[in-house]
Amino acid sequence: MSVSSHHFLITVYSNNILTISTSMNAAVRAVVRMGIYVEAKVYFIYEGYQGMVDGGDNIVEVSWESVSSILQVGGTVIGSARCKEFRTREGRLKAAFNLIQRGITNLCVIGGDGSLTGANLFREEWSGLLEELAQSEEAVKKYVYLNIVGMVGSIDNDFCGTDMTIGTDSALHRIIEVVDAIMTTAQSHQRTFVLEVMGRHCGYLALVSALACGADWVFIPEYPPEEGWEDQMCVKLSENRARKKRLNIIIVAEGAIDSHNKPITSEKVKDLVVQQLGFDTRVTILGHVQRGGTPSAFDRILASRMGVEAVLALLEATPDTPACVVSLSGNQAVRLPLMECVQMTQEVQKAMDERKFCEAVRLRGRYDTSNHTHLSALVDTELLCLPVNVVGPGDAHALFLRVGITEGHNMFAVIDGFEGFANGQIKEISWRDVGGWTGQGGSGSLLTQCVMCAVVKMALPVASSMLYFHPCPLFIPSNCSHHACAQQAYLGLLELSAAREKYDEFCVPMVMVPATVSNNVPGSDFSIGADTALNTITDTCDRIKQSASGTKRRVFIIETMGGYCGYLANMGGLAAGADAAYIFEEKFDIRELQANVEHLTEKMKTSIQRGLVLRNENSNENYTTDFIYQLYSEEGKGVFDCRKNVLGHMQQGGAPSPFDRNFGTKVSAKAVQWISKKLRETYRRGKVFANTEDSVCLLGMRRRNLIFQPVVELKDQADFVHRIPKEQWWLKLRPLMKILAKYKTSYDVSDSGQLEHVARHSPKEAETGAI
Predict the structure, then answer these.
(1) Distant-in-sequence, close-in-space partners of 708: CB < 8 Å, separation ≥ 6
(2) 111 and 15 in contact (C-beta within 8 Å)?
(3) What is the DSSP string of 613-664?
(4) C-alpha–C-alpha distance, residues 170 and 162, integer Å
(5) Under a CB-based contact definition with an 8 Å cutoff, are residues 408 and 402 in contact?
(6) Which value, to the nearest 10 degrees, does the dihedral of the CA atoms of residues 336, 339, 344, 348 take?
(7) Which of 24, 283, 456, 659 has its CA at 20 to 30 Å from residue 295's CA atom?
(8) What pLDDT is attached to residue 59?
(9) E-strand spans in 87-141?
(10) Is residue 453 helix, strand or coil?
(11) CB contact set of 239 (below 8 Å; sequence gap of 6+)
(12) What's the CA gap between 383 and 412, in Å, rounded?
């Protein structure tokens, strides 16, 4: 697409104070820098609609530097306020006058359904407001149309049309941090904790945090418990204590209700537990803690993508184009009609008010409350859990094992991966054995080994003889944590599949789920562990930049893991606001390195004093981290100095992120259901016979769906030499990262290629596109 010669004027604001999320600044930054990139004048409207009505110093033109160093800041630097006056035509008349005085006819609105509805009404009234202002005929013709694009900022994730709203993931981080902290003391004192989280009309935060921390019970508005829930809950808590579980966690959404539409409060739950069970019970109300703090990596990337997409939508807007809202569908940024989404959101609330809860869940369309209901028991057989160098959360193992037990299976775990498999290191796992694994990094108490195909081949005869006595389907909850082993585990599964011709014992259902920080598994957009590593990188970059506060201008060169896969470097650079990210998938030479040094030199002559450069560890065998550090140090003399950091294995440790816990939970539960289905189809005479391609699968996430894919069909999608998929969706975000990072004083015609690429991959419907 070509860039028009006239200036676009884009205003960024949020309105409703209830919708401020901790990651709005990333969206603000993206809109400002993308707007400047396309030669637009960009204005802040401070204090939301109130600032638009009041005008004056509340509407200020901003520059590239205005949004420097705000990515890691919670809330929004432009403020937010309620505005009763804007709800009246007189107030909107004042707002229109203030915009016309500055020639503003494009608005980017960040808020909830109330803010977006107000913006759409303002747009519909625009022509009439201009006539009422008695502007000159020329002015009326020039400013006759007002373009609106919305982004949703709400920690409750209660807006229809998007998988995730800006701020939700950060709120989940705050909740899980509190739960993890509470669990340490609760286990020591055998206590029950009742946690109240936000969610007056939407139970997303409560449900997902309950899944992520392994809560005993959860209450959400959309799923009122049946009559007699009090006794059922107390029986469940007692059973868990009888299994030697030292703590109980109950999560209550603030809007939770019972079947008679009466509130279920955290205090009511506490009193019930104390009176019926006598457990030492405490209440923790998280309140506004959930809305503060540093934004998560997921939220920063989401908000950045939404901001860029919003500017592109304004560039392409016509008088006949309805106002749109930028949303997330799987890993795709999409544009949807604003008022359709608003109306559907309001329909959800209407259904809730009318107690049509199933209809409300269907309309919301994003999460299924059946996730926390009991699964019916299926076939009674044995399952074998084979971990291979796992980095993801213990949830993947714990949930698989417990769901398997719930469905009537006898569960076995292999200690020490394929080598342990060959050596007979197998033990039966009970419900109690996996207690405390939820929220742990690594693989719980199961030891692991990096799998080599040679080891697998050597293990085949012994493993087959073991399976002869215990005909168990195989669940491999990992593709290995390190890039060097990631696809070797996948190859190991291929070896097991190929061994079926020689060993009948391997004719059992086999399923693998991806778990690697490198996110380099073919057949899945995401891997368990990658989001946790990405947050570690982002947090570390924040601290490194903060460490240099008050010192002279400085550039940091940071090496990330990933092997030949540049996912961590690229996405970490986008989340941390890096100036450059060098990756294997995009070749670079000394000329590009020199150009980046010159760019940083120019940037450091402004008020910006920090630079950040990320390098994927295997991006280039000659341009090493040391080489880049020395180059920048030498060329930057007199302007900035350099520091080097190699993050190393710290990216593989720590508590798993909410995304990884939730992802691990979902894929594990789905894997058990798949195996149970295969068992029903193939179980014969005490043994399992399954010798079809679709009985050896990888369970991966593609866009928003979890899909089982035969491993033999994935061979052509993998580059086994460099251990990366041949096609990687996140590479389409490279131009976005560069546009937001490149300091710009004027538009360079040579930059149009980046804009062309972004626009080409900018979808108008949920079915296409990749930005």
Answers:
(1) 511, 674, 694, 697, 698, 699
(2) yes
(3) EEEETTS-SSS-HHHHHHHHHHHTTTT-EEEEEE-GGGGG-SSPPHHHHHHH
(4) 16
(5) no
(6) 130
(7) 283
(8) 93
(9) 106-111
(10) helix
(11) none
(12) 6
Do 759 and 328 meet the contact criterion of CB atoms below 8 Å apart? no
Q: Are 444 and 398 in contact (CB under 8 A)?
A: yes
- Convert 362-418 into a string of H (helix), E (strand) and C (coil): HHHCCCCHHHHCCCCCCCCCEEEECCCCCCCCCHHHHHHHHHHHHCCCEEEEECCHH
Distances in Å between the Cα of 170 and the Cα atoms of 68, 157, 360, 688 are 21, 11, 25, 45
Reported in sequence order, the residue ranges of 226-315 that DSSP labels E, i.e. its strands, are 248-253, 281-285
Q: What is the DSSP string of 165-216?
A: -BTHHHHHHHHHHHHHHHHHHHHHHT-EEEEEE--SS--HHHHHHHHHHT-S
Distance CA 162, CA 580 (A): 30
The type of residue at 290 is Q
726: its two tokens? 């041949």
> Which amino acids are annotated catalytic?
156
Q: Which of 240, 195, 239, 235 is nearest to 218 (CA)?
A: 195
pLDDT of residue 105: 87
Going by C-beta distance under 8 Å and a sequence separation of 6 or more, which residues neighbour residue 271?
A: none
**pLDDT tens, position by position, 191-234:** 899 999 999 889 999 999 998 888 889 999 998 998 999 999 99
DSSP string spanning 72-88? Answer: T--S-TT-----SGGGS
Please list the ranges in the chain whose pLDDT falls under 70: 1-22, 135-141, 366-410, 416-424, 428-489, 549-551, 683-690, 743-771
pLDDT value of residue 409: 67
Identity (one letter) of the amino acid at 431?
W
Decide if 47 contacts 553 (C-beta within 8 A).
Answer: no
- What the chain holds in terms of domains, given with CATH numbers, is 9-165+295-364 (3.40.50.450), 169-291 (3.40.50.460), 382-528+656-719 (3.40.50.450), 531-648 (3.40.50.460)
CB 740 within 8 A of CB 26: no
Grouping H, G, I as helix, E, B as strand and the rest as coil, residue 341 is: helix
Write down the pLDDT at residue 430.
Answer: 67
Residue 519, pLDDT score: 93
